[in-house]
Amino acid sequence: MSSRRLVIIGAGFAGQSLAREIRERFPDRVLEAFWDDDPAKIGSVVDGVPVFGPISALQTHETVPDEAILAIPSATKGQLKQIYKTVVQTGIPRIRILPAISQIVDGEAHFVLTRDIDPQDLLGRNPVQISLRQSLRYLRGKRVLITGAGGSIGSELARQLLSGGAERLYLLGHGENAIYQIDKELRLLQAEGVGEKATIVPIVADLKDANHLQFLLSRLKADVVFHAAAHKHVPMMEANPVEACANNVLGTKNLLEACLEHQVKKFVLISTDKAVLPHSVYGVTKKISEDLVLEAGMRGQGQYMTVRFGNVLGSRGSIVPLFREQILAGGPVTITDPAASRYFMTIPEAVSLVLQTGGMGQAGQLYLLDMGEPILIEDLAAQIIRFYGKEPGKDIAIQYIGLRPGERLTERLFAPDEEPVPTAYARINRLVRATDSEISPRQLDDLLLKLKPICVYTPDTAGQYRNRRALRDILREFYPTLEAKNEPEF
User: Does 138 share its domain with 113?
Assistant: First the structure.
């Protein structure tokens, strides 16, 4: 088998670490050179490998390598865009990238962490740099449960927690395939020397099964819970509103009761900007979840808190993977409206900030991640089209399809009765609510009492079971910003 010739862009600690691993473990790969912009490095030889530069002169490389690895984890988005453009112009067929610096602990860069570059690597703002080792100290020796561990946020929580020194990582999810995949990935990372030797425990469970959750929490002895599980696709939940409430609301209630009963010390709910003046059923379910967690936090039994943020780039079912599929199929790229915009953050940055919030956050508090400025979906689509070497409107058509059920033209991160107050930590704000705007524990109990016969079958209330129209009426009674529509009963 012929050897693969490659170059590493970046001759710093990450690039040198990769070079050593490639030399020792991958004899089928030949590292021809480093490329770097640092004048102090250009012209030197590192472990027998020459350092050329600047990176903009990559096209002068003697031959076109088979692969380039971008190993500058501290590079800004602007720098990455320019480097990517240079590598593409050079004609290198495969481009891989190391994750952001926040995911590389104490200089430990591993080849297994590299992956094919993706549009989301070049989108958005520059992420805040967080030392994982320092921010995860509160988890050392702890037992940590992640719900929704097979999802986009849950799986990234698991990856980053691998470096936190936790004693055990419990990966809980409803879909066995997703849990299988993240379990396999974490074990591979451990085998390749990434992270620490936490015991990984995959768990397939349903949040709607209260008895199972009580049984699990009694045995797992979890210290910390990150609750990322939710049905979250807005139009899909508009079509399945009862299931959205059963899973997102009653599931969260079941989990909270089990955690309180079995003395879980810290609970962090992952929430969304869709919960602000909620317009969709999904948004209402997350608003109720926020209220449930904040109410639990006020009981004084542990640090129960909520972290709210907007969209994340590249999550499954989101627009970035959809745009990619549409572009690779030749278009058109579908956009709801030319004025539609969203707040975006990369998944790794969002998760790093969630983990940091979990360490500094206080009981009964709602935290908001600083999302920067909203981005027009049309601008995002154009950037992704250009990533694939096409021109929007010329090579790839753009088609406007109108807002889907439950969607809004724009989102907001906090309500008029909520005020963001900066904390001592970059991009983490605490939301202060007006006291008279908060839903009371008695109102929450009343709401749950009304929702239960619709979501859970009992012979005495069989006529209410799965009644969509009754569900929307109840939800609008407590959250009047929910869109009114003529629902069928079933």
Answer: no
* Structural domain includes residue 191: yes
6, 31 Cβ separation under 8 angstroms: yes
Sequential DSSP letters for 86-102: HHHHHT-SEEEE---GG
The verdict on residue 246 lying in a domain is yes
Write down which residue in 62, 89, 117 finishes a domain. Answer: 117
**Which residues form the catalytic set?**
274
Number of folded domains that form the chain = 3
- pLDDT tens-digit readout, 402-427: 999 999 999 999 999 999 999 999 99
Distances 266 to 128, 228, 361, 438 between C-alpha atoms, Å: 24, 14, 10, 22
C-alpha 375/C-alpha 377 separation (Å) is 6
In a domain, 322, yes or no: no
Which pTM does this prediction carry?
Answer: 0.95
Question: Tens of pLDDT along 192-239?
Answer: 988 888 999 999 999 999 999 999 999 999 999 999 999 999 999 999
Q: pLDDT, tens digit, for every residue of 288-303?
A: 999 999 999 998 889 9
pLDDT score recorded for residue 434: 76
Q: Are 122 and 387 in contact (CB under 8 A)?
A: yes
**Distance in Å from the first CA to the final CA of the chain:** 61
The neighbour count for residue 181, using CB atoms within 10 Å, is 14
Structural domain boundaries enclosing 466: 441-478
Residues 159 and 272 in one domain: yes
